[in-house]
Automatic annotation (TrEMBL):
Its EC number is 3.5.3.11. This is Agmatinase. It comes from Gracilibacillus pellucidus. Keywords: Hydrolase.
Length: 290
C-alpha cells in the first residue's frame, strides 16, 4: 500500500498534492464487515469527501483557513471485502507507516472496529497514550454473538491494551448491563448522555499527554445524523459536538491522531450526515493539528 502519490479519486476540499510538505494524512477505511444492524458505512469516507466541496474553507469558530493546514488525502485503504482480521492488520500497518513519517493520521470510517488497530499502532509509538471516545455506544463487549471482532468490541480491546484508566468515553447512552458494569468497576471514565460539559472538566487532567480521539457520528441524535448504521435516539446536537471539538482545540491537549467513523450515507437521502461529518473534519484539521 502506498500513500506517496496523489489520490486519483475525490479528495477532501483543499487537500495538497505534496505528501512531503503535509503535516496530516487523511485516509479512508471502507469497512463494514462486522456490523450487527445496517451495513453501508464502507461508503462513508468517499461521501464525506464529496460533501466537503460545499464547505467554506474558513472557520469563523477558530478563525483559521484551510490554506493554513497542510494535509494530504491518500484515498481509501483497499481492504479485502468480508475479511475483518486481514483488514485490521492492513489498517494497523498503514497507520504505522504514517507515524513513521511523523505525520498526523486522520481516518474516516467505516465501522467503529477500524479504530482498534489504529490505537494499537498509536500506543506502540506513544506508550502513555490516552483515548477520548465520543459515541452513543459503549463498545465494551468482549464479543457479539460469539464474534470477538465486532463493531461493538473496540473500546474493550483498547481498555485491555492501554489500561481502562486511560480511556475516556463521552455521550454514551447505549450498551448492555455488563458493559456499564465494566465501565464502573474497571476505572475507566464514562460520561453518559452528554459530551461538551464533562469533556471540559476532563481536558485539564490530560494536558500534555498524547491523546487519540475517536468520534462515532452516532453520538449525534438521529435528527442530526440519520445516516448511520446503528442510530440511537436521545443524542446530542451538531452544535454540541462542534463545541466539544473546539474545546479540545483550545485546550492544552497534545492530539496525536483522530478518526470519525460510522457515516452510512445510504440511510440519509438529505445528505445532512455527510455534510455535518465534513464540517467536523474541517474543524479537526484547523483545531487539532498544531
Amino acid at each position: 500500500m502506498r500513500f506517496d502519490e496523489a489520490y486519483s479519486g475525490k479528495v477532501f476540499i483543499m487537500a495538497q498534492q505534496d505528501l512531503s510538505a503535509s503535516d496530516v494524512i487523511l485516509y479512508g477505511m471502507p469497512m463494514d464487515w462486522t456490523v450487527s444492524f445496517r451495513p453501508g458505512s464502507r461508503f462513508g469516507p468517499n461521501r464525506i469527501r464529496e460533501a466537503s466541496i460545499g464547505l467554506e474553507e474558513y472557520s469563523p469558530y477558530l478563525e483559521r483557513h484551510l490554506e493554513e493546514v497542510h494535509y494530504f488525502d491518500a484515498g481509501d485503504i483497499p481492504l479485502p471485502f468480508g475479511n475483518p482480521a486481514r483488514s485490521l492488520e492492513m489498517i494497523r500497518d498503514y497507520v504505522k507507516k504514517i507515524l513513521a513519517q511523523g505525520k498526523f493520521p486522520l481516518g474516516l470510517g467505516g465501522e467503529h472496529l477500524v479504530s482498534w488497530p489504529i490505537i494499537e499502532a498509536m500506543h506502540e509509538k506513544y506508550p502513555d497514550l490516552a483515548v477520548i471516545h465520543i459515541d452513543a455506544h459503549a463498545d465494551l463487549r468482549e464479543e457479539y454473538e460469539g464474534e470477538p471482532l465486532s463493531h461493538s468490541t473496540p473500546l474493550r480491546k483498547v481498555c485491555e491494551k492501554i489500561g481502562p484508566e486511560n480511556v475516556y468515553s463521552f455521550g454514551i447512552r447505549s450498551g448492555d448491563r455488563e458493559e456499564f458494569r465494566y465501565a464502573k468497576e474497571s476505572g475507566m471514565y464514562m460520561a453518559k448522555y452528554d459530551v461538551a460539559e464533562p469533556l471540559k472538566e476532563v481536558l485539564p487532567t490530560l494536558a500534555g499527554r498524547p491523546v487519540y480521539v475517536t468520534i462515532d457520528i452516532d453520538v449525534l441524535d438521529p435528527a442530526f445524523a440519520p445516516g448511520t448504521g446503528t442510530a440511537e435516539a436521545g443524542g446530542i446536537s451538531s452544535k454540541e459536538l462542534l463545541e466539544a471539538i473546539h474545546s479540545i482545540a483550545r485546550s492544552e491537549l497534545n492530539v496525536v491522531g483522530a478518526d470519525l467513523v460510522e457515516v452510512a450515507p445510504n440511510y440519509d437521502p438529505t445528505e445532512q450526515t455527510a455534510i455535518a461529518a465534513s464540517k467536523f473534519v474541517r474543524e479537526i484539521l484547523l483545531g487539532w493539528v498544531k
